[in-house]
Write a structure and sequence with these properties.
The protein is mainly α. Helices cover 70% and strands 0% of the residues. It contains 16 helices and no strands. Helix 5 packs antiparallel against helix 8, helix 9 packs antiparallel against helix 10 and helix 9 runs antiparallel to helix 14. It starts with 22 loop residues before the first helix and ends with a helix.
């Protein structure tokens, strides 16, 4: 019995092969033969219609930027473009350097004093009263320190200048009697040139520029005080305003960046101030015991330079040793050097780990590079602010990047980053819970801040589903504005 073929079954060619492989040829535009049930006409010299155009469209585009050299050139162009943008941004910031430095100093002071404001608020103080108390306290503290420094140095200024003159003459005699021949005539000529410059009109122009710098300093100081007050008073409102532009993971990471930045800046200022005070007391007592004159101004200098990491203590030690050399002699100078070295060892091995803990979490090389770049860009303020803000940048990088592979590696070996230095280990349980709520706020049924229009729409939809009492007006009143 002959079996009838099903109408939905495709015809088969001889040999049992399906016509499905020929479908690609028909797609490419081949001509079909009516007697072959849709099979394109193939054979010697027969080319499907539109074959060349289709293959050109399907072939990958090959251009001058497709090879390895082209990709390297495109990456280089992108790098140069990003570098140009960064250079332009730095140039703009340098033009408003007074504002930038004032804001950075105010932020670092607010991070240090902010916990005091929160502590007073928990004790029942109002926000304004707590802000005023902390604000006046930090101003009185800074004003007292600066006034003490000025009066301490000014009271012994005449003694300092006379001893400096005698020390200069003594240094010249030591150089002339030393084994290394030195032409003192050139040194005297340089001194005379400096004296002539002071008595000339060019020095007056420099003095005027100094007055301009003093006016700029006063302007920045006033601006810093104003910014500091608003940072202490409205810091939470500012961060609340900033976080409301983001959602989910970005909001959580931004909130963690703000918390870790404030923690690093505040801990750095408080710890450095305490360590600087201890160093100044120890070194000042040592200078008094040795009998070095100007011990109190030198101790004040130690306190001020201690805010410059690594270099500050060394600079203050060199100045103290030079003063001891020209006033007391080489033996006393060596004793002063020993005192400076001992205090620095105590600071690095005992005071820093106990007081500051692992606030910075930066390698010593990174500290030196940040200090150098900050000094070149911002002078003395750049030297003071570069290291803490570099630590903040490192904390933010750890928060926003997850590419770093934590833990020991079988090939690379031990992880160079201490587990205590990782940013996730510095958050409290309350902060971690806050970040998790931000990440899953919408997934857990929570709603982000709604506008008044969203509230009205939600109330209207509620009225459509469940009729309310006649006494309540739909979409109006206080109930319509509740988020």
């Amino acid at each position: 019995m002959a079996t009838s073929s099903r109408p939905d079954q495709p015809p088969r060619r001889s040999g049992g092969s399906s016509t499905a492989p020929l479908h690609a040829e028909s797609v490419l535009g081949g001509r079909t033969d009516p007697g072959t049930s849709g099979v394109p006409a193939m054979g010697p010299g027969v080319e499907p219609a539109g074959f060349e155009e289709t293959t050109q469209a399907l072939a990958p585009a090959v251009g001058p930027w497709a090879d390895s050299l082209g990709r390297a050139g495109s990456r280089a162009a992108q790098t140069l473009l990003v570098a140009a943008v960064l250079v332009g941004l730095v140039w703009v910031l340098l033009q408003i350097k007074v504002v930038v430095i004032a804001a950075m100093v105010a932020l670092i002071l607010a991070s240090a004093v902010g916990p005091v404001v929160k502590w007073l608020e928990r004790k029942g103080w109002s926000n304004l009263l707590a802000t005023l108390a902390a604000f006046l306290g930090i101003l009185l503290l800074l004003g007292g320190v600066i006034t003490g420094i000025v009066f301490t140095v000014r009271a012994q200024w005449e003694t300092l200048t006379s001893q400096a003159s005698e020390g200069w003459n003594e240094l010249q005699r030591l150089v002339q009697s030393g084994p290394i021949p030195v032409d003192t005539a050139s040194v005297d000529a340089a001194v005379r040139q400096a004296t002539d410059f002071v008595t000339s009109g060019s020095f007056a122009g420099s003095a005027l520029s100094g007055l301009s710098a003093a006016a700029t300093f006063v302007t920045g100081l006033v601006l810093m005080i104003v910014i500091l007050f608003f940072f202490l008073k409205d810091a939470e409102k500012m961060w609340n305003f900033t976080l409301r532009w983001f959602r989910g993971e970005r909001r959580a990471k931004l909130a963690e960046s703000i918390d870790r930045g404030a923690q690093v800046l505040g801990g750095y200022v408080r710890g450095t101030a305490l360590v600087a005070l201890i160093d100044a007391v120890f070194i000042g007592v040592g200078l008094l015991i040795v009998g070095v004159p100007l011990a109190l101004p030198l101790a004040v200098l130690v306190f001020v330079t201690a805010f410059i990491p690594v270099v500050g203590a060394t600079l203050a030690g060199i100045i103290a040793a030079l003063v001891a050399l020209v006033t007391n002699g080489p033996i006393e100078a060596l004793i002063v050097v020993g005192i400076i070295v001992l205090v620095n060892q105590i600071e690095g091995n005992i005071l820093q780990p106990i007081i500051m803990g692992r606030t910075l979490s930066l390698h010593a090389l990174m500290v030196l590079l940040a200090l150098t770049i900050g000094t070149l860009i911002g002078g003395i303020f750049g030297a003071i602010l570069a290291v803490p803000y570099t630590a903040v940048a490192w904390a933010v990088i750890q928060i926003w990047s997850s590419r770093y592979q934590v833990g020991d590696d079988p090939v690379l070996g031990q992880d160079p980053v201490n587990p205590k230095d990782r940013v996730e280990s510095k958050a409290t349980m309350a902060e971690r819970w806050k970040y998790q709520r931000m990440r899953y706020q919408q997934a857990l049924g929570g709603r982000f801040g709604a506008t008044e229009r969203d509230a009205v729409r939600q109330d209207d939809s509620t009225d459509d589903d469940a009729p309310q009492s006649a006494g309540r007006s739909t979409g109006s009143g206080e109930s319509a504005r509740k988020p």
